[in-house]
Amino acid sequence: MLDRKTIALLLCTVLAVPGLALAAMSSTNYYIYADSVDYGGGTGTSTNFGLQDTFGGFATGISTSTSYQINAGYQAATQGTLSFVLSGTSISFGSLATAGTVATSNVTAIVNTDSATGYTLSISGVSGTALAAVGDGIVDGAGSIEEYGLAVSGSNVAYANDAAVINGLVLSSAIAPASFDITTLTFKAVRAASSVAGTYSQNISLTAAANI
Predict the structure, then answer these.
(1) Exposed, middle or buried by CB within 10 Å (0-12, 13-18, 19+), for 168?
(2) Model confidence over 9-35: pLDDT tens digits?
(3) Cβ atoms of residues 205 and 168 within 8 Å
(4) Are 92 and 104 in contact (CB under 8 A)?
(5) Which of 44, 88, 134, 212 is the most interior residue, by most CB within 10 Å?
(6) Is the pTM of this model over 0.90?
(7) Could you give the maximum distance between any two Cα atoms of the chain, in Å?
(8) CA 78 to chain CA centroid, nearest Å
(9) Of 11, 8, 15, the residue nearest 203 (C-alpha)
(10) Minimal CA–CA distance to 121: which of 113, 131, 132, 129?
(11) All domains of the chain, ordered by start, with CATH?
Protein backbone atom coordinates (compact mmCIF):
# COMPACT_ATOMS: atom_id res chain seq x y z
CA MET A 1 0.00 0.00 0.00
CA LEU A 2 1.34 3.38 -0.98
CA ASP A 3 1.71 5.64 2.04
CA ARG A 4 3.81 8.49 0.76
CA LYS A 5 5.88 9.82 -2.06
CA THR A 6 8.51 12.51 -1.65
CA ILE A 7 9.74 14.67 -4.50
CA ALA A 8 12.50 17.27 -4.31
CA LEU A 9 13.83 19.42 -7.10
CA LEU A 10 17.20 21.12 -7.29
CA LEU A 11 17.45 24.04 -9.68
CA CYS A 12 20.67 25.44 -11.06
CA THR A 13 21.19 28.37 -13.39
CA VAL A 14 23.31 29.08 -16.43
CA LEU A 15 23.79 32.59 -17.74
CA ALA A 16 24.68 32.84 -21.41
CA VAL A 17 25.60 36.16 -22.95
CA PRO A 18 26.53 35.48 -26.58
CA GLY A 19 27.97 38.17 -28.77
CA LEU A 20 25.69 40.31 -30.86
CA ALA A 21 24.82 39.04 -34.31
CA LEU A 22 27.21 41.35 -36.14
CA ALA A 23 30.64 40.73 -34.66
CA ALA A 24 33.36 42.45 -36.62
CA MET A 25 35.38 39.28 -37.15
CA SER A 26 34.80 35.73 -35.98
CA SER A 27 36.04 32.15 -36.22
CA THR A 28 34.80 28.82 -34.90
CA ASN A 29 35.81 29.57 -31.32
CA TYR A 30 36.37 33.33 -31.12
CA TYR A 31 35.09 36.66 -32.30
CA ILE A 32 36.26 40.27 -32.12
CA TYR A 33 33.31 42.28 -30.88
CA ALA A 34 34.66 45.70 -31.80
CA ASP A 35 37.77 46.63 -33.75
CA SER A 36 39.29 49.91 -34.90
CA VAL A 37 42.16 51.24 -37.00
CA ASP A 38 44.23 53.60 -34.83
CA TYR A 39 47.74 54.95 -34.57
CA GLY A 40 48.42 53.34 -31.22
CA GLY A 41 47.34 52.69 -27.68
CA GLY A 42 47.52 49.97 -25.11
CA THR A 43 46.83 48.98 -21.54
CA GLY A 44 48.25 50.71 -18.51
CA THR A 45 47.91 49.66 -14.89
CA SER A 46 48.70 50.91 -11.41
CA THR A 47 48.05 49.54 -7.94
CA ASN A 48 44.38 50.52 -7.98
CA PHE A 49 43.44 51.24 -11.60
CA GLY A 50 43.61 49.91 -15.15
CA LEU A 51 43.50 52.00 -18.32
CA GLN A 52 42.82 50.99 -21.91
CA ASP A 53 43.65 53.77 -24.32
CA THR A 54 43.69 54.38 -28.07
CA PHE A 55 44.70 57.39 -30.14
CA GLY A 56 44.29 58.34 -33.76
CA GLY A 57 40.75 56.97 -34.16
CA PHE A 58 38.33 58.50 -36.66
CA ALA A 59 34.70 59.54 -36.09
CA THR A 60 34.62 58.29 -32.50
CA GLY A 61 32.31 59.28 -29.68
CA ILE A 62 28.61 59.22 -28.92
CA SER A 63 26.01 60.62 -31.32
CA THR A 64 22.30 60.73 -30.56
CA SER A 65 18.97 61.48 -32.20
CA THR A 66 15.39 61.28 -30.96
CA SER A 67 15.22 57.50 -31.29
CA TYR A 68 18.81 56.22 -31.61
CA GLN A 69 22.27 56.46 -30.15
CA ILE A 70 25.57 55.58 -31.85
CA ASN A 71 28.57 54.64 -29.72
CA ALA A 72 31.32 54.95 -32.32
CA GLY A 73 34.86 53.72 -31.84
CA TYR A 74 36.50 50.94 -29.89
CA GLN A 75 36.42 52.68 -26.50
CA ALA A 76 32.76 53.64 -26.84
CA ALA A 77 31.55 50.18 -27.85
CA THR A 78 29.49 48.24 -25.32
CA GLN A 79 28.41 44.62 -25.64
CA GLY A 80 25.35 44.81 -23.41
CA THR A 81 24.41 43.15 -20.16
CA LEU A 82 22.20 40.28 -19.02
CA SER A 83 21.42 39.22 -15.45
CA PHE A 84 19.44 36.22 -14.24
CA VAL A 85 18.33 35.59 -10.65
CA LEU A 86 16.26 32.78 -9.09
CA SER A 87 14.26 33.27 -5.90
CA GLY A 88 15.56 29.91 -4.71
CA THR A 89 17.57 26.92 -5.88
CA SER A 90 15.58 24.09 -4.30
CA ILE A 91 11.89 23.26 -3.92
CA SER A 92 10.07 20.30 -2.43
CA PHE A 93 6.59 18.81 -2.69
CA GLY A 94 7.05 16.94 0.57
CA SER A 95 5.01 13.76 0.93
CA LEU A 96 2.20 13.19 -1.55
CA ALA A 97 -0.03 11.29 0.82
CA THR A 98 -3.39 11.58 -0.95
CA ALA A 99 -3.97 10.20 -4.43
CA GLY A 100 -5.58 12.73 -6.76
CA THR A 101 -4.43 15.79 -4.77
CA VAL A 102 -2.18 18.15 -6.76
CA ALA A 103 0.88 19.47 -4.93
CA THR A 104 2.57 22.65 -6.17
CA SER A 105 5.80 24.52 -5.50
CA ASN A 106 6.99 27.78 -7.01
CA VAL A 107 10.22 29.52 -7.90
CA THR A 108 10.61 32.91 -9.57
CA ALA A 109 13.12 33.76 -12.30
CA ILE A 110 14.02 37.41 -12.97
CA VAL A 111 15.83 38.36 -16.19
CA ASN A 112 17.16 41.83 -16.93
CA THR A 113 18.92 42.70 -20.20
CA ASP A 114 19.60 45.65 -22.46
CA SER A 115 20.12 43.33 -25.44
CA ALA A 116 18.33 44.84 -28.44
CA THR A 117 17.22 41.35 -29.48
CA GLY A 118 15.89 40.31 -26.07
CA TYR A 119 16.44 37.01 -24.31
CA THR A 120 15.25 33.39 -24.00
CA LEU A 121 14.83 31.51 -20.72
CA SER A 122 14.76 27.73 -21.07
CA ILE A 123 15.50 24.40 -19.42
CA SER A 124 18.96 23.30 -20.49
CA GLY A 125 19.31 20.08 -18.54
CA VAL A 126 17.23 17.56 -16.57
CA SER A 127 18.49 14.56 -14.63
CA GLY A 128 17.09 12.31 -11.91
CA THR A 129 13.72 10.66 -11.40
CA ALA A 130 10.14 11.94 -11.42
CA LEU A 131 6.53 10.89 -11.74
CA ALA A 132 4.99 10.29 -15.16
CA ALA A 133 5.12 13.43 -17.31
CA VAL A 134 1.88 15.28 -17.94
CA GLY A 135 0.52 14.43 -21.37
CA ASP A 136 -2.78 16.27 -21.64
CA GLY A 137 -1.67 19.83 -20.83
CA ILE A 138 -2.98 19.93 -17.27
CA VAL A 139 -1.78 18.29 -14.06
CA ASP A 140 -5.03 17.38 -12.28
CA GLY A 141 -4.93 13.63 -11.74
CA ALA A 142 -8.04 13.13 -13.86
CA GLY A 143 -8.67 9.45 -14.48
CA SER A 144 -6.69 8.55 -11.35
CA ILE A 145 -3.34 8.89 -13.13
CA GLU A 146 -0.08 10.25 -11.79
CA GLU A 147 1.22 13.41 -13.44
CA TYR A 148 4.14 15.81 -13.13
CA GLY A 149 4.60 19.06 -15.01
CA LEU A 150 5.45 22.74 -15.04
CA ALA A 151 3.31 25.84 -15.51
CA VAL A 152 4.69 29.32 -16.15
CA SER A 153 3.18 32.75 -15.59
CA GLY A 154 4.37 36.23 -16.48
CA SER A 155 4.23 38.79 -19.29
CA ASN A 156 6.51 36.91 -21.72
CA VAL A 157 5.80 33.23 -21.06
CA ALA A 158 6.22 30.75 -23.90
CA TYR A 159 3.18 28.51 -23.28
CA ALA A 160 -0.16 28.55 -21.47
CA ASN A 161 -0.79 25.04 -20.09
CA ASP A 162 1.17 22.57 -17.96
CA ALA A 163 4.14 21.10 -19.81
CA ALA A 164 6.44 18.15 -19.26
CA VAL A 165 9.77 19.08 -17.64
CA ILE A 166 12.18 18.30 -20.46
CA ASN A 167 15.51 19.54 -21.75
CA GLY A 168 15.06 22.36 -24.26
CA LEU A 169 11.67 23.56 -22.97
CA VAL A 170 11.43 27.32 -23.54
CA LEU A 171 9.85 29.01 -20.53
CA SER A 172 9.76 32.67 -21.54
CA SER A 173 11.31 35.01 -24.08
CA ALA A 174 11.38 38.61 -25.24
CA ILE A 175 12.41 40.19 -28.55
CA ALA A 176 13.48 43.52 -27.07
CA PRO A 177 15.33 44.76 -23.97
CA ALA A 178 13.66 43.51 -20.79
CA SER A 179 13.62 45.35 -17.48
CA PHE A 180 13.55 42.79 -14.66
CA ASP A 181 11.19 40.45 -16.48
CA ILE A 182 9.57 38.07 -13.98
CA THR A 183 8.60 34.48 -14.80
CA THR A 184 7.02 32.32 -12.10
CA LEU A 185 7.66 28.59 -12.47
CA THR A 186 5.02 26.43 -10.79
CA PHE A 187 5.96 22.76 -10.53
CA LYS A 188 2.99 20.41 -10.08
CA ALA A 189 2.70 16.75 -9.09
CA VAL A 190 -0.11 14.33 -8.34
CA ARG A 191 0.15 10.65 -7.55
CA ALA A 192 -2.23 7.82 -8.32
CA ALA A 193 -3.24 4.92 -6.09
CA SER A 194 -1.06 2.68 -8.23
CA SER A 195 2.03 4.90 -8.00
CA VAL A 196 5.19 3.27 -6.69
CA ALA A 197 6.22 4.57 -3.28
CA GLY A 198 9.67 6.10 -3.00
CA THR A 199 11.74 9.25 -3.12
CA TYR A 200 11.99 11.11 -6.41
CA SER A 201 14.35 13.98 -7.16
CA GLN A 202 15.60 15.96 -10.13
CA ASN A 203 18.38 18.37 -11.00
CA ILE A 204 17.11 21.00 -13.43
CA SER A 205 19.36 23.53 -15.16
CA LEU A 206 17.90 26.81 -16.40
CA THR A 207 19.61 29.01 -18.99
CA ALA A 208 18.96 32.67 -19.76
CA ALA A 209 20.60 33.75 -23.02
CA ALA A 210 20.58 36.92 -25.06
CA ASN A 211 19.02 36.32 -28.48
CA ILE A 212 21.28 36.57 -31.52
Answers:
(1) exposed
(2) 666 655 555 443 444 567 777 666 666
(3) no
(4) no
(5) 134
(6) no
(7) 81
(8) 22
(9) 11
(10) 113
(11) 5-18+81-210 (2.60.40), 34-72 (no CATH)
